[in-house]
Design a protein that fits this description.
The structure is a homodimer of 598-residue chains. With 598 residues, chain A is an alpha/beta fold. Chain A is built from 17 helices and 29 strands. In chain A, strand 25 and strand 26 form a beta hairpin. In chain A, helix 4 runs parallel beside helix 6. The first copy, chain A, is elongated. The relative contact order of chain A is 0.13.
Chain lengths: 598, 598
C-alpha cells in the first residue's frame, strides 16, 4: 500500500483527537460497530479518524468534529474492518495488481497477501520487485509474499528464472515483503533439503511468516516432518480432517473459496458443527479469475458463501480480518476497528447478505455503491516486463510434428489425459499411426497434439506430445503463455498449421491466449505483461476470457473451462503426466518418460 | 530463560525426528493432549521432543523412540502447555527471580513476564540489567518488561534512579526485554507528554509490546486518548465493563488474581455470561506474596480460581497460555503444545482440580509432585546490589520528632489515614498536642508517628508526619525499605526510640522489614538485595513475613496485613495523602502540603 505512517508516528495526533484537543478529519457516525475482537455488534457508535488511522470509537464523537471534519452518516449501517485475502495470486486473475485492486476495493477488500509465484517464474527476483513496487502504489494494503519454489520442480523443468535461498535471504527484508510464499516442495522440506531449509530459516529469523502448501491427503511422517520445519499455514486442505489436524498443530488452515477452489463447505464444519475455536482458521481465495471478480466478487463472495454454509457472520468475518492480521503479525495496523488501526472501514446494510455500500480506505471514502471514487491510474510497467516472449524464430506446422525412426505403421504413445475441474492428469497409453516418420494424432479418438514451446531463453526448443480430452472436432489450436508454473508456451491443436499460427500470434502481441480456428484467430486474450497479465481492466479481461472459452467450446471442447486444463499441462508437481521443457514427465515417479515407447 | 536455540536452528533435527530418521530425546506417551488452539481434549497422544522443542504430536510416536530416548508414560494424564503469568513483579514476593522460579516451576509455570519496576526505582537501568541477567539464567522463560515510570511521580518524589526515554530506547533492544512495562502515568500519556510518547514509540518501533496501566474507572476522553497512544494491555481493570470496553478497542485486559488483587470473579463474566470471544482476555497475578506462592500457588491457583468462577477449563487455560504468547509475539515458541514449540509440558490428573503432577521444561523433566528436580543454584548478586541503603548516619529518637515554632498547646495536623486492603489513603485532620516545640502523637486515638528516611543518596533527610490506623498500643515501631514506589525507608511507630532502632537495624542488614517492640527487635525480614528482595527461599521469606505480620498484630495492629499499608505510605500516585522524600503530598491535587497547618 501507499506508504502509511506507523501508529507511533501519528499517535500524538490520534491522542489529540481522542481527548478532544484537535478535530478529526473524518467521523463515521451512528453505525453498528462490528467487533471482531469480542464478536459483538454494537449499535450507535461513532468512529473518529485522523492521519489515516482510527483515533477513537465512542458513542458520541461530536466533540471530535471541527469545521473541516468530513462526517459520514452510517445510521443503521454495519461498520466493519476491511476484508483481507490471506493467500492469493494476482496473476490468476490475468490482471495487474492495480486492476485487481480496482475490482476488489469497492467490494470491501482492503488487504491482500499476494504471492507473485507466476511472475517469479518468468522474471525471478526482478519480477517480484516489480510487484512490490506496484503494490506499494496501491491505496489498499497489498502485502507480497516472497516466492519460495521457483522453479516449482527443480531438475524436471527450466523456468524463466530461479529463486535461490540467497535471493530469499535478501528479499525477505524488503519493505512490503510479508513472508515466504507457499513452500510447495514439501518432499524437499521433509527431506531437510538445504535450500528450502535456508529459505525457511531466513524467513523465521526475520520474524515473518512462512507460508505452507502440503498438497497431499497423507498425514503420515512426511506430514509431521513438514510441520516441524516451520510453515505456519496451509491452503491446500481439502477435507475437514486435514484442516483440523493442522490447526491442532499450530498451523493456520487457510480455507479456499476461489474460482475453482470450493473448499469451504467441507471444512467450515470444523467450526460450525464440531465447535472448534475459530481463532486458528482463515479464509482466502488462492486463485480467482477476472470473471469471478467482476460477476461474483472477492472476499465479499467468500463471506456470503461461508455464511451460506452455516458459519456465524461474525465468525466468518474474523476468519478474513483479525485472524489473518494476527497470522501475519500486522494486527496493530489492521484486522479490526480499534484505536490506532488503519481507518479501513467498510459500511454495509447487513452482514447476512453482505454487500459493501461504502469503503473507507486510509480515512478516505474510496468507494461507494460499487464505484471506485479514488484516482487509480493504470500501472506503467517498465518495457522489459512486456518483453517476456523469447522465441528463436517463427514457428511452422512441421515444428509440431513428432518424428520417429519408423516410416509407417503404429507406435505406442504415452498420452496426457485431462479431465474437467481436476488438477491431476491421467497417464494414458494409445496406439498412434505413423505416416512418413510422423506420428499422427487421432482426432476421432480425441488424441490431439500438445506442445511446449520454450519461451524464456529462445532455445528454439519445441517439446511435442499428445493429449486426450480437449475434444476439438475441427481444425484448430489454442496457445497460451500462461503455463503453470514455468510459463513456457503451451499449445494444443487438431491442426499443426493452426498451432503455428496460434504461437506466432502470441509472439506478436507479447503473450496471452490465442484460439485459432481453420486458419484464423478466433479469440485472443492479450497478456503482454510477462505473458501472464493483461494491461486492461478486469471487466475487459473477463470478457476476453469468456470469448476465448466460448471459442474453445465452438471448436468442440467439451469442458466448460478448457483453458484451465491447457494452462496446467506443464505443471510438473501434480501427477500423473506433464509436459516440461525437458520432455514428458511422469510426475508419480518424478522422471522423464519418452512420448513414444520403444 | 537459559538461551534456547530458535526454532529454525533446530528445525532440521525436529524434521528428522518427525519423519523417523532420528530418535527423539524424550517421548511423552499416551496422554490427553490439551489443545488450547482448537479448544479440545484429545486422548491417547504422544509428544516427541528433541533439542528442547516438540518434534511431533502423533497417536503413536513409537517410531521416534531409540535406545537413548527417555520415555515418560502419561497414560490418563492431561498434557498441557506450561502456564504463563502475563504481568507480574517478582519483587512483590520479596524473592529473587531464582527463588520465585523455584517456587512456581513445580506448580506448572514455565513463563513469566516480569516488570522490575521496583528494583528500577532503586538501581535504575543497572537494576533492570541485573534482572535480565538473572532471568537469562533461569530454566523457564522469564521475560523482562522495561520499566517505563521511574520515578512513578516525577516532581513529587526522588527515587533511587530515573529511567529516561533514552534508557528505554536503548534497553528495549536487549535480548530478554519483551516490551515496555506498565505505562502508569496515564495523565501524561493522554497529555502527549514527550518522554512517555518517546518510550512508547521506541517500543512500538521495535515491534515489542507496550504494557498499559490506566488506573481509573473513568472512561471518558482521557481514557480514549490513552488507548490511541498505543498501550496494548491493561491489568488495572476492576469491573467487567472496564475489561470489555478495553477488549473491544484492541487492548487485552489482563485480569488479576494476585495475593491482594481479586479481579477475576467480576470480570470473567464477560466470557462466562456475556459470551464474548475469549481471545482478547488474559489472566495474570501482578503481585503475589511469598506466602501465597508457597501455600496456594501461582498460575495454578489462578486457573483453579477461574474455573471456580465458572470459566470453562480450556478457556481459562487459553487465557494463561496461547493468548499471552500471542500478545507478546512469542507464540511460535510457547503457549501451546505443537511442533516447533518449546517442550514446556505440564502433566496433570485433571484440569478441573488442577495440580501439576510433573513439569517438563526445555524437554527435561524439571519437577515432579511439587519437587524441583533441576539444579537451580541461588543467584549470586553482585555486591553493589546488596548495598542499596545509603544513610548519612545512625538515627536517633529525636530524628522522628517533628518540631514547631510554638512551645506548647495544640496544632492542627494533616494525618494519613490507612484502611485494611485499600490502596487509597484518606486525608485526615487532627488536633495534636505540642510539648517543648515537639508535636506529639496521640496514641490513644491511634495517631502515630510516620517517617520517610531518605536512603538512596545519604542526604540525611527525614520527613516526619503522622498516620492513623495502625493501632499500635505499646511502645514499638515497624520500618521497611519496601516503600512503593521510590523505596526509601518508611517507619511507623508509637515510640521514637524504637523507630530509630528499627531503622538502624535495617541499615545494619542492608534493608528489609523490622518490627521493634519495647526496645527489642521482635521480627526481621532481611531483604538485602536492593532492600527489596531476600536471598532466602520463598518458604523462608513466607515464614519470616508471617512472623513479621504476627509481631505487628502483637503490637496492637488491627490489620491482617499491616505491612502492606506501611509499604504503600509513600505511593504518591494513589490518593489521598502520602509521604514522599519531598514532604507530605496531597495526591488528589498533586501538590505538597505541610504536616502542620499554619
Amino acid at each position: 500500500m501507499r506508504a502509511r505512517k506507523p501508529w507511533h508516528e501519528v499517535a500524538p495526533q490520534l491522542v489529540d483527537v481522542a481527548t478532544g484537543r484537535a478535530p478529526a478529519e473524518l467521523v463515521v457516525r451512528g453505525g453498528r460497530w462490528v467487533n471482531v475482537l469480542t464478536r459483538e455488534l454494537l449499535p450507535g457508535m461513532d468512529i473518529a479518524v485522523r492521519a489515516g488511522r482510527i483515533a477513537c470509537i465512542v458513542a458520541d464523537a461530536g466533540y471530535c468534529i471541527g469545521p473541516d471534519t468530513r462526517v459520514i452518516e452510517a445510521a443503521g449501517l454495519c461498520m466493519l474492518p476491511g476484508l483481507a485475502d490471506a493467500h492469493m495470486h494476482v496473476e490468476s486473475s490475468m490482471c495487474t495488481i492495480t486492476e485487481y485492486v480496482r475490482a476488489v476495493l469497492p467490494r470491501g477488500t482492503t488487504a491482500i497477501f499476494a504471492d507473485p509465484h507466476e511472475i517469479a517464474n518468468v522474471f525471478g527476483l526482478d519480477g517480484v520487485r516489480m510487484m512490490v513496487e506496484e503494490a506499494a502504489a496501491m491505496p489498499i494494503n497489498v502485502f507480497i509474499q516472497m516466492p519460495s519454489c521457483v522453479p516449482s520442480a527443480p531438475g524436471l523443468e527450466n523456468a524463466g528464472a530461479e529463486i535461490t535461498a540467497e535471493d530469499v535471504a535478501q528479499a525477505i527484508h524488503w519493505p512490503g515483503i510479508i513472508g515466504l510464499g507457499e513452500v510447495m516442495n514439501f518432499p524437499a522440506v521433509a527431506a531437510n533439503d538445504g535450500a528450502m531449509r535456508d529459505m525457511i530459516a531466513a524467513t523465521m529469523r526475520s520474524g515473518k511468516t512462512v507460508g505452507g502448501h502440503y498438497a497431499s491427503p497423507a498425514m503420515e511422517r512426511e506430514f509431521h516432518g513438514y510441520l516441524a520445519a516451520g510453515p505456519a499455514d496451509d491452503h491446500e486442505t481439502m477435507r475437514e480432517r486435514e484442516a483440523i489436524e493442522r490447526a491442532r498443530r499450530g498451523q493456520r488452515p487457510m480455507i479456499r473459496y476461489g474460482s475453482a477452489w470450493h473448499d469451504v463447505a467441507a471444512q467450515i464444519r470444523a467450526i460450525t458443527e464440531r465447535g472448534l475455536d475459530p481463532q486458528q482458521f482463515i479464509l482466502c481465495t488462492d486463485d480467482v479469475h477476472a470473471a469471478t471478480l467482476v460477476q461474483e466478487g472477492h472476499m465479499d463472495r467468500v463471506l456470503r458463501h461461508a455464511i451460506d454454509e452455516g458459519c456465524d457472520p461474525l465468525v466468518a468475518l474474523q476468519l478474513m480480518t483479525i485472524n489473518t492480521a494476527r497470522h501475519f503479525g500486522v494486527d496493530r495496523d489492521l484486522g479490526c476497528l480499534a484505536p490506532g488501526r488503519y481507518a479501513d472501514i467498510v459500511l454495509a446494510d447487513s452482514l447476512e447478505d453482505f454487500r459493501a455500500a461504502a469503503v473507507i480506505v486510509n480515512g478516505e471514502l474510496a468507494a461507494q455503491d460499487g464505484d471506485l471514487l479514488l484516482d487509480l491510474p493504470p500501472w506503467q510497467h517498465e518495457q522489459r516486463f512486456r518483453q517476456s516472449l523469447h522465441l528463436a524464430r517463427e514457428l511452422v506446422a512441421t515444428d509440431f510434428q513428432l518424428r520417429v525412426a519408423q516410416v509407417k505403421g503404429e507406435v505406442r504413445a504415452n498420452v496426457i489425459g485431462v479431465t474437467e475441474n481436476q488438477a491431476p492428469t491421467t497417464h494414458l497409453r494409445r496406439q498412434l499411426r505413423v505416416v512418413d516418420h510422423v506420428v499422427q494424432p487421432d482426432r476421432e479418438n480425441d488424441v490431439l497434439r500438445a506442445a511446449l514451446v520454450e519461451r524464456h531463453r529462445a532455445t528454439g526448443e519445441v517439446v511435442n506430445g499428445f493429449v486426450y480430452g480437449f475434444g476439438f472436432n475441427l481444425p484448430c489450436a489454442v496457445a497460451s503463455t500462461v503455463a503453470h508454473d514455468s510459463h513456457h508456451l503451451l499449445v494444443v491443436g487438431s491442426d499443426d498449421g493452426d498451432m503455428a499460427l496460434a504461437v506466432n500470434t502470441l509472439a506478436r502481441i507479447g503473450g496471452g491466449v490465442a484460439v485459432v480456428r481453420e486458419g484464423e484467430v478466433a479469440a485472443l486474450v492479450g497478456l503482454p505483461i510477462a505473458g501472464l497479465m493483461s494491461d486492461q481492466r478486469a471487466e475487459v479481461v473477463a470478457q476476453q476470457s469468456a470469448q476465448m472459452l466460448a471459442a474453445m467450446r465452438e471448436c468442440g471442447c467439451r469442458m466448460e473451462n478448457g483453458f484451465m486444463q491447457l494452462a496446467l499441462l506443464a505443471l510438473v508437481v501434480i501427477p500423473e503426466l506433464r509436459l516440461s521443457d525437458m520432455g514428458l514427465v511422469d510426475v508419480t515417479r518424478f522422471e522423464r518418460v519418452p512420448v513414444i515407447e520403444a
